Model the fold of this input.
Amino acid sequence: MDVFECITTRRSIRKYKEVPVEWDKVGQILEAGRAAPSSGNVQNWKFIVVLDKPLREGLAEASFQQYWMIQAPVHIVIVEEPLKVKRHYGLRGEKLYSIQNCAAAAENMLLTAHSLGLGACWIGAFDEERVRRLLKIVDEARPQAIITVGYADEIPPAPPKFKMDNVAYINQWWGRIKDMDQYLGYTSAVVLRTVDKGKDILRKINKKLRKEK
Done:
């Protein structure tokens, strides 16, 4: 599948089959996270792959009793190292860029898992200190996200999304275009524009033929 199809068909999976995930696929997901962009290319992340069931149970408990997580045979905990970013960008780097970098890695992992025929889910609700203790994370690092990975045992429907007019402006806040879809070149608008252009060409051809007669 192409990138856009991967983005639009990805779903958050919370039911998994009792099927192990091939290690080479786990490796590809980790590579995707490693390839994510980061501020100043500082790469302030570590990825902890959790396979042992007792640890997965502990993560589910620490994630405010989201016990469905245990079904997923692989958990990947994304951990930030904020001081690495703070050295270059100060407080903004520590409080914002560091988190953004880890979020970019998480999205890369989700999309790669989907492209490999796997299901995944991004969990952000958890007790940081419990996760830290469970996985022996050092004090200067902070868990940012848990990605569950496995073979999906559900096909969730597409969630509703806001219209483009509600989320995109042109040039300034509240800057609107009368026909946003056509302006952005959406397929349906492009088709209509092409049809109109085709009709115009046909009219010109018919007019020329009538003159020749």
Q: What stands out?
A: The longest strand covers residues 142-150.
